Amino acid sequence: MSLLVIKLIFVAVFAGIFGSVLGLGGGTIITPILTLMLGVDINHAIGASLIAVIATSSGAAIAYINDGITNLRIGMFLEVATTIGAITGAFLAGLISSNVLYIIFGLFLLYSALAMLQKKKAEKYDQNRGKALANKMKLNGSYYDKNLEKEVSYHAVHVPAGFGVMYGAGVASGLLGIGSGGFKVMAMDLFMKLPLKVSSATSNFMMGVTAAASAGVYLLRGDIDPQISGPIAIGVLVGATIGTKIMQRMKSKTIRIIFVPVIAYIAIQMILEGLGWKW
User: Fold this and answer.
1) Domains of the chain: which residue ranges?
2) Which positions, given as ranges, span the membrane (predicted)?
């Protein structure tokens, strides 16, 4: 086993743990490390990142679904918005300056990160306002929280707002070629008022569906290198399995404390990209 393979697996295990806990898929870590530290071509790095997202989703989704944390109904409902948005973004590509969009979406993410940071009493959720539509669509559920050692029931609220944010995430993905895990978690947590653990688990499930479609394009273009993607997939799958065990024992407040700086980092990166600055 070569030194590069060992490095790839080590990085992938960490990315799998990180991605499965936060619902970000691991691509946030994989792509910059492969390109900046290991000198991998950017196209091969993105291809490997998509494989990492699929592996994270596969490893985490099974565990979260079995434990009843993932809400499949909400996931598939919001995936419709993401898909429509991605198609819209593909049609708009070339018509709108990508620099402007990077700045707009970056500022929106930064605002959302600050709003999530200010959110108090993370274990308590509004179950009285704006839930009529959610009840009609049966966008509610419950799960057993191993940290709280009790059953947590929840109801989605502000469904149109959550659907709208997911549509915007799809547009961003289609136009800018970026992942939308941060948007997914933020839409469910901040707008639909779902428990953060449910948001993270459902985001993991959704990203696998989205990444599988994108990975097919990269595969046909020859941008998925088995010598890179293979070790990445193995490491991420192991990491995601470990991450699901960790997440279920964590407090929602702790997950939020980790999640917000990561989202702020992604937002600042997008703004600097739009301004044409590198860091």
Assistant:
1) 2-274
2) 9-34, 46-65, 77-94, 100-117, 201-220, 255-272
